[in-house]
Each structure stands twice: as C-alpha cells, then as structure tokens.
Design goal:
Keywords: Cell membrane, Membrane, Transmembrane, Transmembrane helix. By secondary structure, this protein is an alpha+beta fold. Helices cover about 60% and strands about 15% of the residues. The chain folds into 2 domains: about 220 residues, no CATH class; about 90 residues, SH3 type barrels, CATH 2.30.30. It is built from 12 helices and 6 strands.
Length: about 350
Amino acid sequence: MFNRLDRYIARNVLMGMLIVHLIILGLDFTISFINDLGDTEGNYGTLQVLMYGVIRLPWRFYQYAPVSVLIGSLVGLGAMASSNELTVMRSAGFSLWRILIGVMKPLLIVVLLVMAVGEFAAPRTEMFGQAWRTELQEGSAVSRSGGWQREGDSFYRFGSIRADNTLLDVNRFRYDDGRLVEATHASRAVLDGEDWTLEDVDRTLIQQDSTSSEHLDRLAWDTSLDPELLRLIITDRDSQSIGDLWRYGSYLNEQGISANDTWLYFWQKVLLPLTLASLVIIAASFIFGPLRSVAAGSRVFYGTVVGLVFKYVQDLLGPAATIFGFSPIWAIVVPMGACFALGFWLLRRAG
C-alpha cells in the first residue's frame, strides 16, 4: 500500500499535522485553564480545574482535527516545496496526481484515529467530566453545563449525570395556565429500579399573593424520563457519538421539536472523512498553485484564514437551515463541496 515515496510524503505530512495539533491543543488548554480559574468554588479548586482540562483533551483533540489537518498539510507539503523536493519528484516522472495520492494515504490513518476518539473516547470523558465538576461545585450556583427538557406542564434543567445514573443539579419549573406555580431544586436524583427520588430538595410554591418554601430530604419524582434519554439531553451535541445524535434527533422529531442543531452535528460527524479530504485537497492545491513560492509563515496564515472561513460558513448555514427550512446537511456539504471544487480547479491549472 505504501511504497518508499508514499512513506516519505506520509512522514512529512503527518509530522506537520502532529506539530500543528500539539500547538493548537497546548494553546487552547492554556487559555481554557486560565478562563476556568474564575469558576473555582466549593471543592473545585485550581488543581481540579487542571484535571478537568485534562479530562476534556479527547474532545479538544476531535474538535481541532480539521484545522490541524489543513494547516499541518500546508506545513508538511510547504516544507517539501521549500526544499524543492516536490520539484524533484515531478522531474523524476511522478505526476502531481500521483503525489496527491501519496498525501491522501496517511489521511486514512488520521481519519480512523479522529473518528475513534469522537465516537468512543470524547463522549465518555465529557460525560464523566461534567458530572465530576458539577458534584465538586455542589451547593454553588446552577452549573453552566447540562440540558433542558419539557415534560407535561414542567420544564426541567439537569446539570449532569454520573455513570451510576445519579442525576446532579436538578431544577424543575412547573406552570399552570402559563403561570409559574412551583420552583424546585434538588442536589441529586437517584434511580431505584424504575422509580426516581429527589434528594436534598428546596421547593418554592408560588400563589397569587404569596410564596412558601420548604426543604425536604427526599421527594418522589414521577417522570417518564429514563437514564439513556437523560444522557442525550444533558451531553453537549458536539461531544455525542453518531449513534447518540441519531437517536436524540429522532426522539426530538417524534416530539415535534426542532432538531436542526442535532442533525447538524450528526452530518458533521458522518461526513468528517470527506471534510478532512477536502481540506487536504485545498492545502495541496495551494502548495502546487499560488503558495508554492511564498514563505512558510504566509502559508500558515492563509491556511488559518481558509480554516476560519470554512468554519464560519458552516456556523452561518446551521442557523440558516432553521430560518429557511432546508436540511442541515447542506451546512456541511456546501463548504465541503466548495473546497473540493476550488482545490481540483487549482490542481488542474497547476498540473
């Protein structure tokens, strides 16, 4: 599968991707650590902030893979272009398209690794990290993580869920004819068989002209929500696996609730291999085309600009799918198709 030429190209390209990825992860980890220091409270101190950042490394690894693939390809191929190695390869009879095949082969390794992290590692570490952080911050203000869900006349907000199905930071807001009549907060909800019990409960009853509050050690909670559905509700969409996104998107559609953001992340993950391939194509087209004689710093700059434009177009088309009623898959296909079209056009001109 890999001859000597392919191995040499793969070594340079993969090294470029690895270096760029480590730099991006290091910068993001440092910035996030500094920002999260403002959330230290309760038992959640500086050391815990650091550990939380480490727990989230698989998610960061997955999220920054596209930009690392783009800039890393520019760096690896650019280094070969600067030393005239690509020129020598073409002079030796290797066509531009044959060299491009050598660039695409190591991408298979990257795709398998990134997909494995996104499917198996990131969802589990994100769920564990959320629950661990919420539990350490217990007693503080409502956590910023978690999810909302409506059931009957009540709206719920859940902080996180542990591996033993214990819910943390449960808030319930019950309405009657559009008027808030009850606000309840429980530190946790414990599942015993099929029955939920709220623990450490503060409940406020709101009448027309007065309110009353009470604290309860335990309170039965009658709900149809099960642990599997609660995990889907609580876990951020960008850290869910493809299967979880499919199940939650289908559930929301059955409930008559818009699931565009869920389907957006679903198609983003399903089409990730093609997305990475399109970014490698655009990087190779720049090296063989307009960027073949510019400095390495300029290549990184242009690659960063292209990566940001790619991301911003996807981010803009996602909400546009809700407004204009088209499928969220187009938010992924349109920028990806534009990269393929531009890349192949530049490669044809250079070839």
